Amino acid sequence: MTLALIVVAIAVPWPTDTESPPLRERFETPAGTERVPVDGFGEFLRALPIRAGRPSVRLHDGSLKARQDVHAAVVDIDVGATDLQQCADAALRLWAEYLWASERRDGICFRFTSGDAARWSSFRRGERAVVNGNSVRWRRRAKPRSDYVSFRRYLDSVFRYAGTASLARDLRRVKQVGEVRVGDLLLLGGFPCHAVLVVDLAQDKDGQHFALLAQSYMPAQDIHILKRPDHDSPWYPVQGGVVQTPEWRFNWDRDLYRFHHAMCEP
Description:
Elements: H1 3-10, H2 23-26, E1 33-35, H3 41-46, E2 71-74, H4 87-101, E3 109-111, E4 117-119, H5 120-124, E5 127-132, E6 135-140, H6 148-161, H7 164-170, E7 172-173, E8 185-188, E9 194-204, E10 209-215, E11 224-226, E12 236-238, E13 242-244, E14 249-251, E15 256-258
């Protein structure tokens, strides 16, 4: 299923421009490489709509991000009107959108930083999180509603109470950098913290991988494809050791994580 068909089927408010090409058409792979085979989440990410040209990155309130030198392109997906969809939240949003679009909605669940499960199936029944310090209880506070508007409200509640720390706890570690997949995260869950998402991968004949990375940041802002510092190409070599993005430094060997379908299990 292409993203265009997904958008029609679930009536999401993105992309805002029907002429936004999919990521796989916007970015050519480095010379001598080919895209690696993907399915599922990887296929979904390769179909993300990319705004034409190189527009500015804007914050949730419409103002400009202070730095406009870090991005190669902007993903054509809404940010929301509040300062919630930040770094880890952007990755969480795309995973949830993938599950929604692929009709795996009953499996949409994340855990708050407190460890409490936040299930879409509970939210759509009208249950809402009542948070008191580290105590979370779910109570019926609204009428049942299972449309996309309610789903976005659910995601905002997850953005509010989950983040890099909870994802670092609940995602699976990728122990070998050579096992990287489209959809994996480079994630630091401490304080300070950040996360960027691998949205595409290419490989040469020797098995060397190259990745496109996407991020949001603080304050909440457009999801954007990162430039590679001091290089014309936005493709990052995937190799052991440090990877320096325009605004953060990660380590391929210890900071690579993966979403999975049992994130709310003990």
